[in-house]
Design brief:
heterodimer; A: 324 residues; alpha+beta; 4-stranded antiparallel sheet; two-stranded parallel ribbon; 11 helices; elongated; B: 531 residues
Amino acid sequence: MRLLKLVPDNTNIGFVRLRHWAFGLTALLTVLACAAVGVKGLNMGVDFVGGLMIEAKFPKPAELDKVRGTVDRLGVGEGSLQQFGDPNTVSIRLPLPASNDEGATNAVVKKVQTAIAAENPGVTFPRYDTVSGKVSGELIQTGVLAVMLAVIGIAIFSWLRYEWQFGVSTFVAIMHDVLMTLGFFAITQLEFDLNIVAAVLTIVGYSINDKMVIDDRIRENMRKYRQMDMRGLIDLSVNETLPRTVMTSVTVMLALAALLIWGGHVLRGFTSAMMLGIVVGTYSSIYVSSSLLISLGLKPQAMDKTAKKAPGKMSGAERVGPKN
Amino acid sequence: MLDFPRWKIWTICLSLALGVLLAIPSLMPESTAARIGLGGMPRINLGLDLSGGSHLLLEADTADVARQRIALMEEQVRTELNRGNPRIAIGDISTQNGRLSFFVRQPAQVDGAVERLRTLTQPVGVTGDRDWNVAVVDSTRIVVTPTESGLANAVNSAMEVATEVVRKRIDELGTREPTIIRQGAERIVVQVPGLQDPAALKALLGKTAKLEFKLVDVTADPAEVAQGRAPAGSQVLPYPTGTGGVIAVQRRAIINGDQLTDAKQGYDQQTNEPVVIITFNSEGGRRFARVTQENAGKPFAIILDNSVISAPNINEPILGGSARISGSFTVASANELAIALRSGKLPVALKVIEERTVGPQLGADSIRAGAIASIIAAVAVMVFMLLTYGRFGFYSDLAVTINIFVILGVMALLNATLTLPGIAGFVLTIGTAVDANVLINERIREERRRGRGVAQAVELGYKEASRTIFEANVTHAIAGLIMLVLGSGPVKGFAVVLLLGIATSVFTAVVFTRMMVAIWLRRNRPSEIHI
């Protein structure tokens, strides 16, 4: 049986040669993503802005205008409606009532549910969330903190394990991934909630996984080919790890596609964020972080210095076997 | 590489088998597990988003605790200085700005007063702080200020009691397996699976249930009372509840909820209306009997959380130590009040600051969708691995399959909670679990291309890839750990699965497949491999 090979043997793509174009494109996309976040803003869910969210599931595709009219007539504040996953499901978001009484919130939920049920027989309300402004503020803070800490922690790790250039390039690449994801959410206006923070952290984790594999190979090759030109070395390393990069991206995409199609509507935003993140992360591993190493002036001889400085740490990574 | 000692093989197989075994009870309905004798085995908890139910985050009103403490301190100061010997006359008491201040009428007694006030303060913690600071200003004015550690201590003990009260109330509702956990200094998380009516739960938890019986001040001028003014020693309270009407009652309570021994819902024999029947302890009963004897014919007020429920006339002395509270109840609201009274007074008002409720149907749909997605993801990834790496792919597939079970088994063992994002983490783990094998297999391909022999290529493949796998997974785990520590709710559920997945997949993907490959190579000694 002939085995499947996604990347032919001895592939040799000149990634580094294209790096200036790639940097330009990356910069442009990043600026666009930031602009999208700045101009359109994120469609923050109740997790982050506070308020109440009622999910309504209609027996047939919902007529948003009619439902909106029903909610507006109740005088419970300005509602925002969104189709959610499938055309039958609508999420209705409302501000929390001004009075801080628990009864008031429940009363609003009841009122909305009764009014909608009166006009749409067969409608069900599978869930609702209410989050006070205080909690939502904390959730934003811890969310931002978590992502920042993860990025910084990982950058420090790769700085300690390799060279400072790796730390910087990893940091830049991950920030790029995070910004692109945010831009995606700003453009699509998909709801940005706690689950998405988990998705962003996963993207960070996955993307770093990818970069570590390439960085590790670059380091290995730096030791092996001490006299090699850095461009050639990075091209070689990226090409050598390319089959793995493509394979793993494909398997993860397969799994995520299953989740997107069959995983239920609640996880749809989460899954699409991750799928985008995988693409962006793979791109940034190849283009942003590896190529950046050259611009940061990494030299093959850098490894000798580190090896002398901490022989114990590096000894396990020393290559055995005959040289090619 | 080829020499895998027998003990190692056994250890690996046994530990994996154990992991798989632990997963089995969680994969079948509870009743089935019990029938075949696995009822006592640990199971995976389903999060509320999968089982349906309500998640409430309650926050204590710390300002309320501070207010109560100041009021209590004022009482203590008055008693201590009034009753002590010599009596110290004080005046101009104020409790503004969160502190107690008053002046001592005779300047010579200031030192004595301070001395006696110090006995009212308590040391807090190990730092030697006291819960109140007593200071003299302007030579005759004494200011008693609560210290931060004193307040923190008070909030802490109030929260301990509050958590217990909340637990009792929820247990009384008869709900199944509620989770009640204190979170941070002033919060309580309540999770009740499968609850149909979260509104009732919230209403119940929102009640302080401070019950008092007070005599109605019949001497008060109704016009003055309507203006909100009451004679000295009396106070104005809303009555009937919620109508805007008011009534004047004496400040001193005849009896309060602390003396209750029981409360239950019953019916008024004449009108057949729902009522709450309460029973006092012997001291409360005696006191109640005495006051009702002395005040026969006059009205008294039954006050719950500072609003009057009813103000019946005392027709005859109530001697039996039990009383009836009536006042336009429904059966449900009478029952709710009875539960609240039975479980005791909340020492601090609690507010719901977050609520998430998921219907049972949505939960069931989510589980089904998650299971289907997981199976399809696993099959797709496995077929793909098989097509790409042949025999080596098959070993990876075995590893992934075992890995799926081991994750579930470890989760059951740790009594971890599976949430909807947890399922997503699970599916993602299936996708990334093969990464380690991809790394190894690609490495073996590479070494073969360089012309190394089969055994050496395999050995080098595992060896070189292991380091990379380690580095990549440590960094991935950093992200997971941060999610676990900082994340709340869904993020945490996701992080648990992700971290477990990282740990188990490295084991199955590296150690287990290596063992399989070693056994195969040793038996067959192939001169060529398809990879």
